Each structure stands twice: as C-alpha cells, then as structure tokens.
C-alpha cells in the first residue's frame, strides 16, 4: 500500500471512520494512481477497493494500485460499507440521499488535507507542468488576435507534452484585461496583454499569469502589483496563517489607494486540481505547511482602462521557493 | 423575463417551491445568459436575482438578463430565501448542510428537465459547434502521433471559433482504440484511428466520434456498429422510451455476438453540458420528446485488438434528424 493511502487510512481511524466513499476523480487519482474517465467509486477501508465502470476497466487495470472490481449500479456500493462512513464534502445531494438512513455518515476532507502537502514526486510533476507552460509561452509570437494567441499557446503546450490546458486559457488584452477571467476574443491584441494559463503533466497542473505592459501608467500599476506579490511571497513560511498572506498583499495595494480594485483572493493551492487547499484568502483559517504548493497572484483591475495580475507558483520549504523561471516583467 | 426563465418559475409554482437556489454554472447560463467563471448564485423567485462574485461583476453586468447583485459570503444567500426552497441534485453536501435546519429543502431537477428540450436558437448554436468540429477534422492531415493529431484538431477548432474543446479530445489508434476514453499518446497513429471530439459555440457543445478503419476485420466490426447505430436512429421519435433506443442498438450488436463488447450506454443529451438529459441507457425511465438533441454512439471494443465507435448528433423532430454532415465512413 502506498504511503499516501496509508496516511489517509490512518486519518480515518483517528476520526473513527470505518469506511470512506471517495468519488472525486482527483481524490481517486491521488490514492490509486488511476484517474477515472467516468463515474468510479473508491472504497477506503483496511482493504481498499476501486469500483470502476466497465468503460474504465481495461485502462484502470493497468494503472490502479488498489484492487479493482467492476460495478454496475450505485446501490452495489452498500455491500462494501460497514460501520461509520466518511463522505467527501463534494458529494452531491442526490448521492447523499441514497445513503442517508442506511448508514451513519460523516463529511470529512481528510483526502484534500493530505493532498495539500506534496511529495517530492508530486512537486516534480508540478514543476514539469510549469516548465511546459513557460516554454510554450516563450515560443509565442505576440501578434494576431486574442483567440489566435490562446490557440497557439494551447497547441504549443500539447506538443510540449501537456495533457491539456489546466483551465480555460485567459488572454485578455487592452481594456478587456480589467476582466480577471476574460475569455479570448477576435480582437487584435493590444497592451496590456494579460495571459493566465497552465499545463497538465501526469494529471498535475501549473497556473501562472503574466501581463505584458507598454505605457507608463501600466508600468506604475504593474510595479504596485509586483511589490504586493513580492512582499507576500517573502512572508510565506510554515506556521503562518494563509489569511495573513492575503492581508499582506492587500495592504500593499491598499496603501497605494487601489484596495477596491483588488477583487479576488491572493492565491490557492495547485496540484491535481487547479484550485485546491490551502486558500490564501481573507477568511481562511488554515496554517501554511512545508511542501505545500500555492500561487501568489495579486491584481489591480481598473474598469474601462486595464488590469494587471502577476501570478507565480511557490513551493513552501523553510521559506518560499518560486518555481517559475520566467521573470514577471516580460517584453517581446 | 425570457421564456425559459418563465417556464422554470412556473414549474416551481407547480411543485410548490417558493424560491430556488441555482449553483450549477450551466443552469445559471441557461436562465440568465451569463456563464459565471467563479461561484455565483442564482435565486429563482418571482423577482429572480443573480448574486455574482466581485470577480465576475463587470462581465456579468453586460450579459445577465437577471438583476445582478454582488455577494460576499454564502450566508448572505439566506436573506433572499423564503418559504419552501428548491435545490439542485448536484448541490454538494457542504452547502446542503449550511442550509439544513433553517429551511425546508426539496431537491428538484426542473432546470435540467427544461434544458433537455432545445429552443431553435439553442439548436442553431449546437449546429454551429458541430459545424466547427467537423470542418476542423476535415482540415487535418492524418499523420504524426496521436498527440499531434489532437493538438492540431484542437487548434483548428479554436481558430474556427470554438471557445474550447467541449471535452478532452480522444485520439486512440491501433490497439488503444479498444479504450473507449483513451487519451492521446506519443505513438504514431495507426489504424483504426478513433477520434471523439467536440467544439463549443456560445457555451453550447458538439460531440461526435469517427473511427477511420483499414483492414477487413475492422470493416466487418465497423459495419455492425453502423447497423446498430442506424437502426437505433431510425427508431427515435417523440414518445419512445430512452431505454428502448439503447435496447435496439444493443440487440443488433448482440445478434452478431458482440454484446459483451458494447460496454457503455447508447447516447446522451448534449447542450450546455456535454452529458445532460436524456440518457439513452438501459435503466433510464425517461421518454424522448420533440426538440431534444442526443448522441447515438454504439461501439464494439475488442481488448488487445481494436475498438470501433460511431457517434452522431440527432435532433428529434417527428423523426430523428441527423445534424452531422460528415459521413460515418471516412477515408483520407
């Protein structure tokens, strides 16, 4: 049994959970090595079993580290369960209701908590995804439309061994850069060009933003965002509250008078999901730990004018280690 | 108020639901015209309101047909709710628990049921997505590796106005084609080449599979799958049970002795989601209706040898109308 699986089962015992139903594909991938393509169910107990759909059986049998059985209907699951049952917070109400009454159920995020702290192998995969993403950006010609830029970037990532784009690529230029999640249009790119993109390697994601600027006003705002980002990064270390890092970035931007224009949180964990624990946000009560991987991505968005965001990926050791190799201020 | 929104609110009244919480991005898109990029909440009642996150406010204000307010925390939602509350089956347990106790909750899939029957405008968007997907396939050179083919296909779709690939493109060739959801590898493509791909236009998806064959054995299996598909398509009309269409496709394949090798259901609805109501599967109890859009996609998978799947998109009128323009048997 692999180390992570063992740890999670130990956590179950500590919480007096006898069996746990795992449905989230990323959690199944984390614990079995196999990422299901259709509904599969991992039953965690002392002898875990992966119930795969027929459609996944052949692929799963070559990849799953956990014993495999084929299941037909959700109700079959009940035969594998005993005692107090752990369920994920992400389980949907429809499934929850099928189990309620028959079992004592307890929601738990022990798998997500385990996933927040990365193994050396996981960090290597994240670094590889990031390396693909950055290489693919640097191969771009910065001309044409936003859509053409996004298409070429995604093509480059694929050819450079990314399994897919880790999320919908954002290329938002000119005044559209004030939309934090602006999707690419057929407009010719103009400055600033905000690009938020990522690759996936072995199911692990990267997530980075670069904004390419031109005017003095853009540079002024860029430097404020950069200062906020660098100050936040320097404050990262094990034992610090996640919310404190958000505070620190926000204070810098607020001091310059742009507090209201920083309209999202400062960062988030990245791994098998593009957003996972921890959350670097105001209301998060978590504490940063060694070997977490997080983004730090403050931004200033001036509606009708432009927006700037700078996002790097950080591995937490005794201090923050920036995983990105490309500098924040790019010019082409 | 648009027609769909009005219909859904009428359905709520019929079920004695006073307010409904809509969280699924596709459902919000369907009822407001705006697809949120981060967590947003639509409250359905006689005066519906869309609670958008700050990050989406600017974009939503230009697109939402429903009054917009910015929300900060989930608990703010409670101020908008009254009486018996409808919730989606897809709501997660974490959110469900925040509401339990304070409100009488009832799960309902009235939005998904409404979505299954498409308006003329929705069909036009689906047709446009399909047209982009097919054009992009025909522009391909069928050489290189599976990954190169997938990369080029996705690039073509982007350039031809697709917002993204509607799901992870499947290019599975040679013996890998026996994996119904085989992801592309760095192997040079060999026959058969199974490609399952789709485009997205105005948030509406297409979904098609073509398998390009070479040998006589492949052609023999191809013809069985095609016969199953055509027989199933001919049986589609309003009033027929979804499960009956699955039965019909399965019977043809079973008669030729390959019943055990058809390891998935026959089809599914497509629209704002790649899999939505109805499901053309054995245990589905639904009835087909006019203006539904479904896939019909039987397959035979011979482990260690190869697999064949043929998937077209069907608009249900008095009979089935095939939306695809490319023929099932392609050669390049």
From TrEMBL, chains A, B:
Residues 5-110 form the Creatinase N-terminal domain. Keywords: Aminopeptidase, Hydrolase, Metal-binding, Protease. Gene3D superfamilies: Creatinase/methionine aminopeptidase superfamily (3.90.230.10), Creatinase/prolidase N-terminal domain (3.40.350.10). Residues 125-317 form the Peptidase M24 domain. The keyword Manganese does not apply. The keyword Isomerase does not apply. PROSITE patterns: PROLINE_PEPTIDASE. InterPro entries: Creatin/AminoP/Spt16_N, Creatinase/aminopeptidase-like, Creatinase_N, Pept_M24, Peptidase_M24B, Peptidase_M24B_aminopep-P_CS. One of its GO terms (molecular function) is aminopeptidase activity. Belongs to the peptidase M24B family. PANTHER family: AMINOPEPTIDASE (PTHR46112), XAA-PRO AMINOPEPTIDASE P-RELATED (PTHR46112:SF2). This is Aminopeptidase P family protein. The lineage of its organism: Archaea, Methanobacteriati, Methanobacteriota, Methanomada group, Methanobacteria.
